[in-house]
């Protein structure tokens, strides 16, 4: 076997530089000399000259893991002697001392730990033992929690104890183990394919349910159709493995987590990429895991959006990806900015992000920075070694080529000192006081929490509501029904609906009958509320509570239903998409005769396909209020939707919505509808669809940065919000960029442009898109050994297959290439974003667009005129 020497590179953040697969070319030279040598047998991990990191950081490839001997490494930890332990996803454990800086890891120094353990997805050295979370894809060993100890003191682990069996299915199963901040317990990270295990207590009220008002739409490709609440769970476990407590639920694909200096837990989660460009898709995100929190994963189209009152918002949305390792940089010998950062790993896109957190009320907000990237670079786990202050990370998983890398800082930049804000300790203390009542009955909880149900901080409201939900319902139910403060009442009624009702999916034969009297009490109490006394958050809670009541207690009698319709129709439509989402669903469920016309108007005027899909989904079962004209328009929309693009399940979701809608069409109207759907359509690209929006528009001019920048300082006042949003669609921005959880994924998320870009810089990026390209979104030109060149983004890997997305508008247009046949990779110098996008916009329209982006889509921004 040919063993490559260690390679070190001092990084450059010049995204337009050419990068070459030098090691691959070297091996190909050897192949030319000796045809018996194949690249597959060389076990060459991704060379460091294919890896980009910030200036001043050096990346070393320490070791390319021989797959036939040591498998593919997915987890790392450090033992009590400072040795690194690595785990093979389908095999055993290996230990070694980190090599000196600048030196490779000698393969002879790597020792297999001689114990009967395999398939570790998480490891933790604590309490004089190695704790291992096994998630065995091959079902050779039971998945669950193990403890390995050295019983004879010879420095070798020799005893394996099985502490808890867990049922886990393949991916999203039993994952990382963390030491609690007080060093007295262990936290376990599990995904949504690990079954709920027996617990001693739960900080999350165990009244979970699907809570879909309209029948759910399962994934059209069958993914996770049998997985229901509570989803992925974070447990707190005693060192002996006897006591288990639920801390947080509702995750999908969490793999790891980390505690900050204040003892607050953070994790990195992802929803299904197959859902991309649907209204229920949520990007990968960092969340602040507070006591009793739930995060809204449900299968198919059932994911809870951020604005649902029975869900919590993330710290920061990241974008498409596949979460793996997470760590804070506290022990790293890095500049302060990075030493305080939360590092998160994205396996499928080959990226490490540095997330910079800022306190916000009782929780946090954050910004993400692409810290390191490579192609391919399937990063699996990351640790900071306290002895040398270096970052170590592994690539591997799913039997792809594995390797171990080290990152050190050798620069002299002292300008990166982190500014620390003085945190409002009182509000954090209040949240923790309320959380102390979670998971137990305490007579003081109701009085302590009640008046905080209308707190302006969403996490305080959550902590207060959760504390109350843990108390006997007879001690607070009537108090909620008669509460005089409307903001407190809506929170209390949401809690009462959850605790007093049972979701239909979770209901068992042995459960008590539905409490119809409580249903009427809840509805009448909601109807008494003066909407004008609610703020936006409370109004969303008000609307969501109706949905929870109907989901858990059933549809009310006609007279009461009519009262609700009368109340809600006055609110519909709203200027807020989240409110329209809830109102359209609820009024369609109640068969309001006025809702079809209003919802069709919203669908017709929606700027994004996500909004259109949501309104089409709401309309699929309603039978009242249709005219022939509205029905024709509705089913013509399905023809247009055939050319919309999205994730792998996107077309199936549209098909399922259509099938439901057809089932609600009267027999005498079916011929008319069938004739509409039989029309032949030619698939159009987003650019062609954008061109249709431009048909009525005239060419204005090729705008320059200087001429617009000179005026824009005075022009970003009294702008038109709705026109700015329309221009965002007309200019094709939604095709590639996400904005407020809508739009494409092939360009940067523009939601956080406020604070990152000046108006001048934003104009420059739009008018000159190839001037500066982010490494994260720059496509690669991949030359194969037959001379063929493939251009696209590397998005996934499986063994030696590399998946490349070759169509910026269609995430499903992916080709698979054999990494052994790659000759050369160069970063493309040309941005996939075309120039001239503003040439059909008038000057005022350009300024409306810039104001819309810089405001973060906030209609209340000072840049917009008041209505």
Q: How many domains make up the 3D coordinates?
A: 3
* Strand fraction: 15-25%
What's the total helix number? 23
Structural class call reads alpha+beta
Low-confidence stretches: 1-41
State Rg.
28 Å
Q: pLDDT average, as an integer?
A: 88
Would you state the CATH class of the largest domain?
Mainly Beta
How widely separated are the two ends? 73 Å
CATH level-two architecture of the largest domain: 6 Propeller
- CATH overall fold name of the largest domain: Neuraminidase
**Residues in helices, as a percent range:** 25-40%
Q: Count of DSSP E strands?
A: 35
Describe the largest sheet.
Answer: 6 strands, mixed
What key phrases describe this protein's structure?
single chain, 867 residues, alpha+beta, Neuraminidase, SH3 type barrels, 3 domains, 35 strands, 22% strand, globular, disordered N terminus
Structural overview:
By secondary structure, this protein is of the alpha+beta class. The chain folds into three domains: 56-216 and 229-409, TolB, C-terminal domain (Neuraminidase); 555-683, no CATH class; 703-854, SH3 type barrels (Roll), CATH 2.30.30. It is built from 23 helices and 35 strands. Helix 8 (486-500) packs antiparallel against helix 9 (516-527).
Per-chain topology:
Elements lengths: L6 E4 L11 H12 L17 E2 L4 E9 L1 H4 L2 E6 L5 E5 L4 E4 L14 E2 L7 E7 L2 E6 L9 E6 L9 E7 L8 E6 L6 E5 L10 E2 L29 E6 L6 E8 L5 E3 L5 E5 L14 E6 L3 E2 L21 E4 L3 E6 L7 H4 L2 E5 L4 E10 L2 E12 L4 E6 L6 E5 L6 E8 L15 H11 L9 H6 L7 H12 L7 H6 L3 H15 L15 H12 L8 H18 L4 H12 L7 H13 L5 H11 L3 H10 L9 H14 L8 H14 L6 H8 L8 H9 L10 H11 L5 H10 L2 H4 L1 E2 L2 E2 L15 H9 L12 E5 L4 E10 L2 E5 L8 E5 L3 E6 L15 H12 L13
Parallel strand pairs: 14-16, 16-20
Antiparallel strand pairs: 1-3, 2-25, 3-28, 4-5, 5-6, 6-7, 8-9, 9-10, 10-11, 12-13, 13-15, 15-16, 17-18, 18-19, 19-21, 22-23, 23-24, 24-25, 26-27, 27-28, 29-30, 31-32, 31-35, 32-33, 33-34
């Amino acid at each position: 076997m040919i063993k490559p020497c260690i390679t070190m590179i001092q990084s450059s953040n010049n995204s337009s530089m050419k990068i070459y697969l030098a090691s691959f070319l070297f091996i190909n030279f050897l192949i030319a000399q000796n045809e018996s040598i194949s690249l597959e047998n060389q076990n060459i991990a991704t060379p460091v000259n294919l890896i980009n990191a910030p200036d001043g950081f050096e990346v070393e490839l320490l070791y390319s893991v021989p797959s036939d001997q040591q498998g593919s490494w997915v987890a790392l930890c450090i033992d009590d002697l400072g040795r690194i332990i690595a785990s093979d996803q389908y095999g055993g454990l290996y230990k070694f001392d980190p090599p000196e800086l600048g030196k490779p890891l000698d393969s002879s120094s790597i020792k297999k730990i001689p114990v009967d353990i395999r398939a570790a997805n998480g490891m933790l050295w604590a309490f004089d033992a190695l704790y291992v979370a096994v998630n065995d894809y091959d079902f050779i060993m039971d998945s669950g929690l193990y403890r390995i100890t050295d019983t004879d003191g010879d420095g070798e682990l020799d005893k394996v104890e099985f502490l808890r069996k867990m049922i886990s299915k393949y991916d999203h199963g039993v994952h990382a183990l963390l030491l609690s901040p007080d060093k007295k317990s262990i936290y376990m990270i599990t995904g949504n394919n690990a079954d709920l295990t027996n617990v001693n207590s739960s900080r999350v009220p165990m009244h979970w349910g699907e809570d879909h008002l309209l029948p759910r739409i399962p994934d059209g490709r069958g993914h996770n159709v049998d997985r229901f609440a509570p989803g992925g769970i974070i447990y707190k476990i005693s060192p002996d493995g006897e006591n288990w407590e639920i801390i947080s639920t509702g995750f999908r694909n969490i793999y790891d987590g980390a505690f900050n200096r204040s003892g607050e837990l953070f994790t990195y989660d992802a929803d299904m990429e197959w859902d991309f460009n649907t209204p229920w898709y949520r990007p990968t995100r960092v969340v602040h895991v507070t006591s009793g929190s739930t995060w809204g994963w449900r299968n198919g189209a059932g994911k809870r959006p951020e604005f649902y009152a029975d869900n919590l918002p993330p710290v920061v949305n990241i974008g498409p990806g596949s979460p793996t390792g997470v760590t804070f940089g506290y022990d790293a010998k890095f500049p302060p900015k990075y030493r305080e950062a939360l590092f998160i790993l994205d396996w499928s896109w080959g990226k490490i992000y540095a997330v910079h957190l800022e306190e916000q009320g009782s929780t946090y907000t954050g910004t993400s920075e692409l810290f390191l990237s490579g192609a391919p670079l399937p990063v699996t786990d990351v640790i900071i070694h306290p002895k040398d202050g270096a970052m170590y990370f592994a690539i591997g998983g799913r039997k792809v080529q594995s390797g171990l890398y080290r990152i050190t800082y050798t620069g002299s930049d002292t300008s990166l000192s982190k500014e620390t804000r003085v945190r409002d300790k009182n509000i954090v203390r209040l949240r923790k006081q309320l959380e102390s009542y979670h998971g137990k009955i305490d007579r003081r909880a109701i009085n302590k929490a009640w008046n905080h149900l209308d707190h302006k901080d969403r996490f305080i409201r959550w902590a207060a509501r959760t504390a109350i939900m843990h108390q006997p319902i007879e001690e607070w139910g009537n108090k909620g029904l008669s509460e005089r403060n409307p903001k407190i009442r809506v929170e209390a009624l949401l809690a009462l609906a959850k605790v007093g009702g049972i979701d239909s999916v979770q209901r068992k034969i042995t459960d008590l009958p539905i409490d119809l009297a409580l249903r009427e009490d809840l509805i009448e109490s909601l109807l008494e509320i003066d909407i004008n006394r609610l703020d936006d958050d409370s109004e969303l809670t008000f609307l969501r509570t109706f949905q929870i009541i109907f989901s858990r207690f059933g549809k009310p009698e006609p007279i009461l239903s009519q009262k609700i319709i009368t109340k809600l129709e006055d609110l519909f439509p709203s200027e807020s998409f989240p409110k329209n989402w809830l109102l359209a669903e609820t009024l369609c469920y109640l068969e309001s005769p006025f809702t079809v016309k209003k919802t069709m108007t919203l669908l017709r005027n929606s700027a994004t396909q996500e909004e259109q899909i949501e309104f089409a989904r709401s309309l699929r079962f309603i039978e009242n209020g249709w005219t022939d004209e509205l029905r024709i328009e509705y089913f013509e929309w399905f023809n247009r939707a055939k050319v919309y693009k999205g994730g792998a399940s996107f077309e199936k979701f549209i098909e399922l919505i259509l099938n439901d809608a057809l089932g609600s069409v009267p027999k005498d109207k079916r011929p008319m509808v069938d004739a509409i759907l039989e029309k032949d359509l030619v698939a159009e690209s987003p650019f062609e669809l954008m061109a249709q929006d431009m048909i009525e528009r005239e060419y204005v001019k090729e705008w320059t940065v200087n001429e617009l920048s000179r005026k824009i300082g005075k022009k970003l006042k009294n702008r038109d919000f709705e026109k700015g949003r329309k221009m965002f669609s007309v200019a094709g921005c939604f095709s590639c960029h996400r904005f407020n959880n809508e739009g494409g994924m092939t360009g940067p998320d523009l939601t956080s442009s406020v604070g990152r870009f000046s108006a001048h810089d934003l104009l420059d990026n739009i008018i000159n898109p190839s001037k500066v390209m982010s490494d994260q979104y720059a496509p690669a030109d991949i030359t194969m050994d037959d001379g063929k060149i493939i251009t696209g983004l590397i998005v996934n890997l499986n063994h030696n297959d590399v998946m490349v997305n070759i169509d910026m508008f269609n995430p499903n247009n992916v080709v698979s290439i054999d990494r052994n046949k790659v000759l050369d990779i160069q970063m493309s110098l040309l941005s996939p974003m075309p120039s001239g996008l503003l040439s059909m916009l008038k000057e005022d329209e350009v300024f409306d667009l810039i104001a819309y982006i810089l405001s973060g889509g906030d209609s209340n921004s000072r840049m917009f005129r008041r209505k």
